[in-house]
Amino acid sequence: MALQEKGGFENREVIDAFARYARICYQLFGDRVRYWFTFNEPLIPAEAGYLHPRHYPYVTDFRRAAQVLHHIVLAHCKAVAAWRELGLDGQIGIIMDVIPVYPRSDTPEDLRAAAMADLFYTRSINEPILLGKYPDELVAILREHDRLPEYLAQDCALIANTRIDLLGINYYRPRRVKARETPLAEPHGFVPERFFEEYIMPGRRMNTSRGIEIYPAALYDIAMVVKERYGNLPWFVSENGIGIQDEEQFMVNGQVQDDYRIEFLKEHLGYLHQAIADGSHCLGYHMWTFIDCWSWQNAYKNRYGFYRLDLATQQRSLKKSGQWFSTVIANNGFEGE
User: Fold this and answer.
1) Which residues contact 88 (CB under 8 A, 6 or more apart)?
2) Is the pLDDT of residue 337 over 80?
């Protein structure tokens, strides 16, 4: 909070503070920890805290959001540099939140809308981290609209010279867009949505507990992007799962019969298996989550775990999906159906 009162990641001082913190962590635990990740979902603090006010400090200002994101990128780069300077065994990387973008149609207008959504909400963070350079199109647009963050000459060299060893990807939903059909009110100034708007695809499959689309095929598409655009670096699914409200309704003889979670897993793992067969360097899959967990936005309303947590007694009980997944682990796979 002391650093946030100085501006948080809007303040360049926080970059060196983060790098110092990382170095201390490496020194204290580097003899035991072999895999390090600088950030989990680095776009979220900028996008949800400074552009679309869903998180603290609830700011709506694109230039400030861009400044925060740039400083997070630099903090990542300096943390990686500190790790490499110490010559530790292991690997270092980052975990990205990826929402793949799909256009309503293949018309030039819809394709352009999808390209712009992807540029602002995916490539803006992926490319400096994974390719060492911000997209030229993004820089040109921000310069045109006078929204470039402040930066120093050496920033680009630092980004260009930073490489990771391992990438984690969190995937939950797709983003479907179309060319704008309605004028966009921008009471707080420039926002990326001036270039596109949400497309509600007829017949889409929804998780009504969370209000998001379920689209397992996107996991294959993500894998191919990593392979074809980002050099096929080693990666893994660091988060994927389904949160369901009121799972008590599916209790039979004291066990949650969450067949919906098993089907969800089968579909996603099937597409991931296909991606690996097609050459993606994917190392594995992590489910969110092992046990029902607390969310800062909905407490325990949506349950994700292989284990149910009874809030009254704090007792844990294995769900049907947990039993099924243990057999997947034991057999290193499952038979297709």
Assistant:
1) 26, 30
2) no
